[in-house]
Specification:
By secondary structure, this protein is an all-alpha fold. Helices cover about 70% and strands about 0% of the residues. It has a single domain, classed as Orthogonal Bundle (Farnesyl Diphosphate Synthase), CATH 1.10.600. Strands 1-2 form a two-stranded antiparallel ribbon.
């Protein structure tokens, strides 16, 4: 993509015109293709990193290794590792270091899905088009596989291969623990389970659940680049705001897909929240209103990155992708 195109994007961002476009056809095609290529490249690199980290030769108990690999490899778009690598690139941090952090974060994400699918939680048989871990193996093995992925994430981040500065590694461990723990993802999951016991959650309650359950890991994925690069307060703030907006837009888009798509298209069961009596963004905004709110949040996310100008082109495109994806 030419510098002229980059400059136009930067100008449009400051004028708040590019980010106000709502028609996919109006999104610069070169920018979109650049993003999709980068997303796929990062997914492939993350897959290779995880394949190496989870090599069966590293396991004293091969069955747990097989179960961990089953749920961690060949899974999804790798959007969170993309955010780690892209925020690191934006601030000049080492790419291999970022890939290790992205792989660790993906271990956390995959562990959460393994446990989320268990009979005591969401009781799902299908995840990304294949049997869930406890169906493919057994419930006890699935619990241990999730435990293994969770703890291995911190081993990866704490290793000196992730960064030569111990203070940077310590900060990564601290922020990852916060994002995945009782005041982050786990706390959000608990609130989500409790929501099944009473109906009619308010918008504020649903946003709180999603900010913790989904948004916390998005937040870590984007500030981790700033941690690796030892960025400024302003850079941390911009990436954190982007993460907040994108994380919420992602969940609203998920609720839309849950209504408009089939289990075959999504590779998992649909409308389970509605069946459990939990309120969704569709209940509170309506379908059209939810789509508009997701688009608005995508725009607001892009606005937060204005200080980076055209260098953040892939993050601008990612914010649009999140609300326009089909699965």
């Amino acid at each position: 993509m030419s510098n002229r195109v980059f400059d136009k994007i930067a100008i449009d961002v400051h004028k708040q015109t590019y980010i106000r476009q709502t028609n996919t056809d109006q999104l610069n095609e070169a920018l979109k293709m650049s993003f999709l290529e980068t997303l796929k490249t990062t997914a492939d690199e993350t897959e290779k990193m995880l394949d190496d980290l989870l090599a069966l030769k590293n396991f004293s108990a091969p069955r747990i290794g097989e179960a961990m690999r089953y749920s961690a490899l060949g899974q999804g778009k790798r959007l969170r590792p993309f955010f780690v690598c892209e925020s690191a690139r934006l601030l000049g941090a080492d790419h291999q270091n970022a890939l290790r952090v992205g792989a660790a974060l993906e271990c956390i994400h995959c562990y959460s899905l393994v446990h989320d699918d268990l009979p005591a939680m969401d009781d799902d048989d299908l995840r990304r088009g294949k049997p869930t871990n406890h169906i493919a193996f057994d419930e006890a093995t699935a619990i241990l596989a999730g435990d293994g992925l969770l703890t291995y994430a911190f081993e990866i981040v704490a290793d000196e291969l992730t960064h030569d500065n111990p203070a940077v590694r310590a900060k990564l461990v601290l922020e990852l623990a916060k994002a995945s723990g009782h005041n982050g993802m786990v706390g959000g999951q608990m609130l989500d389970l409790e929501a099944e016991q009473h109906t009619g959650q308010s918008l504020e309650e649903i946003i709180k659940i999603q900010n913790l359950k989904t948004g916390a890991l998005f937040h870590f994925s984007l500030i981790s680049g700033a941690i690796l690069a030892q960025g400024t307060v302003e850079q941390f703030g911009a990436l954190g705001t982007y993460a907040e907006k994108v994380g919420l837009a992602f969940q609203i888009a998920d609720d839309v897909l849950d209504v408009e798509s089939s289990p075959e298209e999504l590779g998992k069961a649909t409308q389970k929240d509605a069946d459990a009596g939990k309120s969704t963004f569709i209940d509170l905004y309506g379908l059209a209103g939810a789509k508009q709110r997701a688009a608005d949040l995508s725009n607001e996310a892009c606005e937060a990155l204005a200080l980076f100008g055209a260098k953040a082109e892939n993050l601008y495109a990612a914010a649009r992708f999140i609300v326009e994806r089909k699965k």
